[in-house]
Amino acid sequence: MALILKVIASQYKNRAARAGRNDVIRAAFLILIGSALLSSVYGIFIKILKYFNNLDPIFGSILTIKLLAMVLLSFFSMLLLSNVVIAISMMFLSDDLILLFSQPIKPMSIYLTRYIHATVNSSLMVFLMGFPIFIAYGIIGGAGLPYYFIWIALIIIPFIMICSSASALVTLLLMYFFPARKTKDIFLLLSIGFICMLVILFTSLNPSKFINPNEIMEFAEYIQALNAPTAPYLPSAWASEALVRAVNGSWPKFYLNLFKLWGTAAALFGAMLFTASKIYRQGWWRAQESQEVRFKKGWFDTFSWESLFKFIPVNMRQLLIKDLKTIRRDTAQWSQLLILVSIAIIYVFSIHNLPIERLPQTKYTSLVRDLVFFLNIGFGGFIISAVAARFVFPSISMAGKAHWLIKMAPISPRMLIVQKFWSNFV
Asked: In whole angstroms, what is the distance from residue 66 CA to residue 5 CA?
């Protein structure tokens, strides 16, 4: 395992050594953009937490805890899905696994190195996005130095391990019981599971009861409902509770939640290792099984797209039809689009059910309404940017090795770019 990790480290080292001037400029630009983004996240959360801190002490502390819990809950759901997708490609479908399995290397050594590599790749960005949030919370709460250098690491490490171990365990079972080349079934199952998880997690939050005290008989009951933990059975609730206790200095409850995190992480990691020792080799073998591909035309392929798009020039029309068929046949594309649509539907449903018109008439009522309005604009921008980053940005390179067919066609590069722009814009 140490040898494989050394090879991975050498790959990054050689890539850095061969970096040219354009690579350095690109890396500097990405670092600059990332730093600006993280600084913006830090500034936004500092302002939000200061605003909560200036409210009533009881409400301010409860809202701060709820905000932290919702952030970790969203991180938890994103980590689960991203770890599954990356684990499938790195642990089973990577081309260099054939070379590794042909060497005198134990399968478990290969699996552990892939697990570490996949965990780092899938969790790094989430950790970077969460770090300024945790720093902002520590500054507003007046946490000591151990919070920044010790407690955050002791909380985030098992939190990431729980997500990666659970996802790796699910991946092992998926690839053992499903043929790897039937990616349509796998991605459809993952999409349905992720949508169900989103619905369950959102209903566990039940945000409408937090701003509608008219539905609660007693004020004490309202405070108790507002102070109830967010999805207390999930690791995200344990992590948020541990962060709060580390700042407040409530050490018995801090150690209790820390024990829950590390205990669950150890149990899932052990279950993953046991399962991998039994079925990883067989799962990888099944992933390499070559199956005869039998393409059956459906209504989508036999539909007269030519007559539907007669108003478009013939060259651009053929490119548009090709893009539609590519998206339809590529399950990875439409399954991720299904996830984005499900998130948008859940968000619209939740906003529609928020009883904003029944808010008590106070000096903060108009502020809450304006906040919801601007959050809608921000979420719309998030959906557009997510679609653009996932579908528009790689649209030129999606052809892969067959891109030479487009270059040989009587289509200018300008026409290709224009067609990609308008098809994705519409």
From this structure: 40
